[in-house]
């Protein structure tokens, strides 16, 4: 039996879990990357372009009064979901989203709507008649000489920049900070390594965590250094329309100033109709690589929980299994891994697809760009799960120590290395015969050392070594991160 279609969207009827089950985890992205957020940024760009034109020195559009400038700023700052809904009403008739923003802006200035939108119910706007009169002459400078992509690409740039700086990086920093704390706390906690799943030279828990911190720090830098680009150069990137109206004006310099000083982006000088999106590919590649590091982390912690190296703090009322009462499942790390996979599938598709556009443009980028919120939403959701998992971990030092104490065979490496130093023949082969494929006891190892032609002081040093003490610079490296 199917549910009846719901006439009202809610977290229970949402198609995407980002707006359903996980709605609270992605709240901070929604004002930036939602459809309403996109409209808000478009309004911002249109207003910034209009205000810049008013100060360009053209006889046909004089500088705005302080009251008019303040009113325009308020249109941006107080943009609401209701305003976005009105733009959608207009778009339902125009079938053009950017033109709908232009018409909404004119309506908001008290200038009304064109006759073809007469079927819409009038919207009461709160604007001083003097401001409307002042802006009447500037009405046709709204969206002046712009192609839709001049508005869209700069809006996307500001959206991506805000999402990166205000949401993605702080969420990533939370993980890095937590891991750094753990690396310092457990810098000296000796732990058995496993290469190929087999016992290997010991390390410390803190050093293994520090390895991840170092990788994430480097990867984070790659995210931060990507320049977010924007262009305002017309239908095919040549300022054709601009120069037809004002041929003696330096449009390139003007566009650069608007993009860089007013919109806070880096100016993209050479484009077709669209900004080529190479920077988006660079950024999303960098985020995807960071996500891959975290997939690796999630899987390792999952495995260490399975070994008993970590316990998980339980919460009253929480259930691990519907039939096995004892279970405390590592669900945070599993959820994080799964959502990182979803995020990377979207991020990598965008990185591969967006820089490709037939001739001067096709529309395949438009529908893909509308999924930026999905890609970054799954990323942020995964970061949240990972951090929650890290905050619930308890180290089982007794289990870690017990595994290490039972692995005396790992000291075959230092013994054969010292034998090499003193010129003893076939050290590797002799230790291989003693240890390969089986564990040995402390007594067996000491008997082997006692029979070596080594200085007595060196034998004592080797016999004083334990699996727990054989960690090299691990603790120092962990403390330095």
TrEMBL record:
InterPro entries: Fumarase/histidase_N, Fumarate_lyase_CS, Fumarate_lyase_fam, Fumarate_lyase_N, L-Aspartase-like, Pur_lyase, PurB_bact, PurB_C. One of its GO terms (biological process) is IMP biosynthetic process. Its EC number is 4.3.2.2. Residues 20-338 form the Fumarate lyase N-terminal domain. It comes from the Bacteria. The keyword Transmembrane helix does not apply. Keywords: Lyase, Purine biosynthesis. Residues 357-471 form the Adenylosuccinate lyase PurB C-terminal domain. Pathway: Purine metabolism; IMP biosynthesis via de novo pathway; 5-amino-1-(5-phospho-D-ribosyl)imidazole-4-carboxamide from 5-amino-1-(5-phospho-D-ribosyl)imidazole-4-carboxylate: step 2/2; Purine metabolism; AMP biosynthesis via de novo pathway; AMP from IMP: step 2/2. CDD domains: PurB. One of its GO terms (molecular function) is N6-(1,2-dicarboxyethyl)AMP AMP-lyase (fumarate-forming) activity. It catalyses: N(6)-(1,2-dicarboxyethyl)-AMP = fumarate + AMP; (2S)-2-[5-amino-1-(5-phospho-beta-D-ribosyl)imidazole-4-carboxamido]succinate = 5-amino-1-(5-phospho-beta-D-ribosyl)imidazole-4-carboxamide + fumarate. GO terms for cellular component: cytosol. NCBIfam families: PRK09285.1, purB. Belongs to the lyase 1 family. Adenylosuccinate lyase subfamily. Catalyzes two reactions in de novo purine nucleotide biosynthesis. Catalyzes the breakdown of 5-aminoimidazole- (N-succinylocarboxamide) ribotide (SAICAR or 2-[5-amino-1-(5-phospho-beta-D-ribosyl)imidazole-4-carboxamido]succinate) to 5-aminoimidazole-4-carboxamide ribotide (AICAR or 5-amino-1-(5-phospho-beta-D-ribosyl)imidazole-4-carboxamide) and fumarate, and of adenylosuccinate (ADS or N(6)-(1,2-dicarboxyethyl)-AMP) to adenosine monophosphate (AMP) and fumarate. This is Adenylosuccinate lyase. It comes from Oxalobacter vibrioformis. The lineage of its organism: Bacteria, Pseudomonadati, Pseudomonadota, Betaproteobacteria, Burkholderiales.
